[in-house]
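User: Structure with phosphoric acid mono(formamide)ester, tokens only please.
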Amino acid sequence: MNHAAWKRKDLVGLKDLSADEIRLMLSTAKSLQEISLRPVKKVPTLRGRTVANLFFEPSTRTRISFELAEKRLSADTINFTGSVSSTVKGETLKDTVRNIESLKVEIIVIRHPASGAPHALAESLPVSVVNAGDGINEHPTQALLDMFTIQEKKGTLANIKVAFIGDILHSRVARSNIWGLTKMGAKVVVCGPKTLLPPKVESLGVSATTDLGTAIKDADVINLLRIQTERQSECFFPSIREYANSYQINREVLQHAKPDVLIMHPGPVNRGIELASDVMDGPYSVILDQVTNGLAVRMAVLYLLSGARKKAAEK
Ligand code: CP
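Assistant:
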């Protein structure tokens, strides 16, 4: 599949993407990766284009990485924080975006606490929408960078066993990874307290267990998820200490994992809860490689969406 084959105006999730489209994203990211290694880390690909970053939730990695990706591609950028915008005075999200669009912004990158917010904008407005995380639904660029990192370290995604440990129920990262990894032929197991496993999660093509030992046995990758207290309105387990006793990845637990296992985490990490500090900083951890790879992946997303807009305008 060549770059011209990308037809979508938006990237709202991996649920609707084909395996070929995911492959195209990953191969485009691979080809853009070397730009960040050049002495002058900039290409003119998006010169004259404008991208707005709309963040209605906190973010470190995603926000910085999108902004840097835009700069690497020479786009003009606008940064917009929900808490200081006129949405707090009652303006609707759609009206806010229509105002931004009227300034000839071509792509918006949006993080929003409401599941489906990017999809609603993408369906009703001409601007291209990139989902930077919507509620508990999807975080497609995180899953793409996770897949990119696994492919980089293991050479393939096919038949790779990836274990997700933690708060699966509230995790948009887990959902996007499940959609993406299963399409790419990986084997996915999800693990956590029963209360944090979505009902009927096996219908998504994954296996589920409450037992950490079962989940990490033969796993090529262990991807840890933070307990998302900001999305929880009730107690899902008795205490953080009890959670850590059963589900923390530490040196003792790793003795039962494969010798070449990768430890991944989308961040932010709660050190000493889901992941022991020495393992986070140890040789199995590829957490900072994930962050590095996120830049190339977000450059690929912007590049392909911008190309599709250009083709549509030429028709
Ligand atoms: N992984 C991730 O989305 O991190 P941020 O919340 O810091 O963007």
